[in-house]
Amino acid sequence: MAFILTSISGYRTSIFLYVVVFVFLLMSFFRGLVGTDTYAYEIIVGHLSGGPVWTGMEPGFVLISWLLLEITGDASVTVRILGLLVFCALFIYIYRSNKLEKFLLVSYILPAFIYQYSMNGLRVGIAAMMILLATQELRQDRAVRGVGLATASLFFHYSTLVSMVLLWASKIRWARTQNILIVPLAVLLALCFFIFNESYFYGKINSYQGFESPSSFSGLGKILTLLVLVSGVFMSNLARADKAKLLLLGLGSTLIFWFVSTISYAGLRFLDLLSFAYPLCILVVYNSRKLEFGRFMKITLVVAGLLAALMSYRNFINEEGQGPSPFLPYHLKKF
Question: Which of 31, 42, 163, 211 stands the most exposed, by the fewest C-beta atoms within 10 Å?
């Protein structure tokens, strides 16, 4: 509905986006034990009542969680306020957005990630919103602030290093030989860094919650979404050099992360990160060229958003009633 109404307005108004995001905010804040990692986060935050614990989790998240817990005195309320930070960032993004950013948000980012980032993966959700705001700084030629925001996101989730590398790769000129060599090397170095530290990055939450690797179908859903986005780039109105750069980034990263997923759970994490970062790479290139999304690119983003949403809902249904805090059935919290 927000997509249709915003389209009718010619993306000249953001009122419909504000309303939809506010509805999601209410769903997130007033939820009970809903969201796969919600229960785990409540336990982790509760353990901060004795003071900050700096090992096993990013320092920015620990500090913010501890400060909020000191104010509220309630771990479950603190977890829900942390979710509000995602929506605060979204409201800022909408306020500063241009037509391309509005379209990407309503067609892809909201349907694909709003539930996951506000009710489940809070750390990566906050970090992802900082990356989102960083792309706006880049569009407005405020590189220092953009890099600062992106760097700060690392203190909430170390894996945003992958997003930073991809965005950097989409921004630089590949005509220079050294850049062509540096880009894949940077991606591989970031990949190796996380693979060798996988137990550190994911051990904290996994120690509080039963851990099962997602099915191969889950990985396939991300790959299909990414291939849809890549096809949009191939048929887009971008210049040949920009197409080649984005196609190499999209296909190359998807292939690498898929291979990693066959030997490590981290690969599926990387595919999820890529499905968020790659559309931002496309956005950065379009904004830098001052181009509008062509018809095929718009259709691609809508299809990719619907596909990602359907895959998420399928997972919610398959996991209904399982674990201490499944997404379904949704219920309200008793304050």
Answer: 211
Higher pLDDT, 142 or 263: 142
In a domain, 121, yes or no: yes
Contact of 58 with 155, CB cutoff 8 Å: yes
Which residue range forms the structural domain that includes residue 225?
A: 2-318
* Phi/psi at 332 (5° precision): -85, 150
Could you give the CA distance from residue 61 to residue 152 in angstroms, rounded to a whole number?
11
| Entry pTM | 0.88
- Cis peptide before 184, with omega less than 30 degrees from 0? no
| Residues 326, 330: Cα–Cα separation, whole Å | 8
The β-bridge partners of 31 are: 332
Measured CA to CA, the distance from residue 335 to residue 333 in angstroms comes to 6
Confidence band for 205, pLDDT divided at 50, 70 and 90: very low
Contact at 8 Å (CB) between 126 and 160?
Answer: no
Q: How many C-alpha atoms does 203 have within 13 Å on its Cβ side?
A: 10
